[in-house]
Specification:
Elements: E1 10-13, E2 19-21, E3 48-50
């Protein structure tokens, strides 16, 4: 059976424009920060958004 994509696997940083897997941006599932060096963007829905 093929896996269904939910559009929630990738995030985009609104500050630096980087895209990355959602799991790379959080350690606990509640706090999200941009994993790119030198970027201090944080907050899912604020500085980081899901790509569809």
């Amino acid at each position: 059976m093929p896996q269904l994509r939910t559009g929630r696997e990738l995030l985009e940083c609104r500050t630096c424009g980087a895209t990355f897997p959602e799991a790379k941006a959080t350690d606990d599932g509640w706090t999200y920060v941009c994993p790119e060096g030198g970027c201090d963007a944080s907050g899912l829905g604020e500085a980081l958004r899901h790509l569809n």
